[in-house]
Design a protein that fits this description.
This protein has 369 residues and is of the alpha/beta class. The chain contains 12 helices and 14 strands. The protein has a 7-stranded mixed β-sheet with strand order 2-10-9-8-5-3-4, with helices on both faces. A 3-stranded antiparallel β-sheet has the order 11-14-13, covered by helices on one side. A two-stranded parallel ribbon has the order 1-12.
Amino acid sequence: MENLLNGIEEVLLMGPGPSAVSDEVYAALSRKTLGHLDPYFIKIMDAIKVQLQTVLETENVLTMPLSGTGSAGMEAVFVNLIEPGDAVLILKNGVFGLRMAEVANRLGAAVEVLEFEWGTPVLVEAVKEQLAGKTYKLVAVVHAETSTGVCNPVAEIGALLKGSATLYLVDAVTSLGGMEVAMDKWGIDALYSGSQKCLSCPPGLAPVSFSQRAVETILGRRRKVPNWYLDMSLIAGYWEGKSRAYHHTAPINMLYGLYQALFLLLQEGPAAVYRRHREMHELLVSGLEKMGLEMLVDASCRLPMLNAVKIPTGVDDAAVRRRLLHDYKIEIGAGLGPLAGQIWRLGLMGHTARSENVERLLAALQEIL
Ligand SMILES: Cc1ncc(COP(=O)(O)O)c(C=O)c1O
């Protein structure tokens, strides 16, 4: 009988995620599975919480990885904080802002969307104007918009909301582990991320964190969280306190992987990791520009870990991506939504962000183009 797993070849993951996984993380994933209430496993869970607090620069007690991908993290923050009729403002300039609006709408929130052109950042002045006219229960924005390569001004938006009763929700799926995310300093109340981007773990876990204010909002809900699996008050019973109660069976080996990925990040040092991402981004952009390629996003708001490059006229988008994958074993990302066929998305996330990978991609693109 053929075992399909024997046919897996290594592909250099240079798209919008998942990113390359290090040997140390693969080794961690294959450690012996412990019981989900084993005291040694609980020790690892406690350590992961502290690792996440460190990387998120937060003292939030309710900080942990949820079982599920980044979208489960997105769903969790909204479903716990929002009740029908709540006024929610979504700042949207790409696919993931759009997804946030979809999630909030399904919960019956009174959703307003402030829209910005894809490939440009959220404008702080426009947000300020919008906030002057109305009080919202929650304002949400994506830090690193993976669909366009734009970095949104998360700290500046947080400064606008400081002192108000409005909760501030940030998507840090692509930014966490590749650039600074200072949750407390920036006044963020709820945040979610994913394991498969700059944390360089396989997909399957969604770190989340809630401020004290957000916790109070959850405790003061008029009605129960409508989604049992993502109800933070139930999940906290497993992740916090002395008597850990079973909620769902934690994905034990995935959590070993996340522990190891965070261990490596903290060992290298967050500042050094962010610098490496920035330097690899500069190396890539200068190589692309030497080939005559143009970036989509203005240099002032480009993400280091997600590089959107315009596809030159006359070049067959899919054929280039196919050749990269087939002949060079490199995966890059296509454009999404209105940018489909117009850009390639080149990821430099976590373990992928190394000079040998940048050089390999540049050389392959040079040959193909
Ligand atoms: C910014 C952002 N938010 C949310 C998500 C959704 O995460 P997932 O695909 O892990 O569910 C992604 C995935 O690419 C993303 O880039």
